[in-house]
Amino acid sequence: MRRKLVAGNWKMHGSHKANADLLAGIAQARPFGCDVAVCPPFPYLSEAAVALAGSDIRWGAQDCSAHEQGAYTGEVSVAMLAEFGCRYVIVGHSERRAYHGESDQLVADKAKAALARGVTPIVCVGETLAQRDAGETEAVVKRQLSAVIHTLAHCAGEMVVAYEPVWAIGTGRTASPEQAQAVHAVLRAQLRAATAHADAMQILYGGSVKPDNAATLFAQADIDGGLIGGAALKAADFVAICRAAG
Ligand code: PGA
Predict the structure, then answer these.
(1) What does the pLDDT look like over 123-177, one tens digit per residue?
(2) Is 206 in the pocket of ligand 1 (CB under 6 A)?
(3) pTM of the entire structure?
(4) What CATH topology corresponds to 5-245?
(5) Cβ of 228 below 6 Å from ligand 1
(6) Neighbours of 145 (CB within 10 A)
């Protein structure tokens, strides 16, 4: 049995006070029967690390640079994140692909940079509504994942994958458990062809996961937890989703 992972993607939300309350609310609800992680914005990562010290709740970043170091104004390297205990980094979120023009190869390079420092990349893939309507879902997610598989090569089994249909993110319109499972099965098969670790890898679903739909999504054979946006900002909702995972 794969252990499930529930990761909260806080996006560009939060403040000292709101974060402290949210982290306290999550920490108080421990223990969980699944892996739990939060991904606050960069300026708040070190205080999240302090707030979570001694607990088994992990933390991650929402992005990283593909570069080691250097003249890259505004960027944050994985070495910096790793220095104070970062466990995960989300790469290739559809908002970064759409608003920052991130290519499949850049996403793959970021995933590689993360693994090189022992930080687990959560690699997001997902189709737009137009792509789904055109019957391109499978081709799109396979193309996105394939770039990462090739770049990571023998380390491909060490990433976490997140399937996030773009049309389900922040829209309240979630993929049905069957729709999500069908894509997860495609991704699992693609991973099996690339790595002997595929059956141990976590493939998360993301896109309007809420307390009332989490359990049925997580009951699907190839759904190993969730990447949670809006519902990760309320401790009660996030905790309920973690409980649904185990
Ligand atoms: P959502 O976001 O849960 O608000 O739909 C998920 C994500 O973008 O990771």
Answers:
(1) 999 999 999 999 999 999 999 999 999 999 999 999 999 999 999 998 888 899 9
(2) yes
(3) 0.98
(4) TIM Barrel (3.20.20)
(5) yes
(6) 26
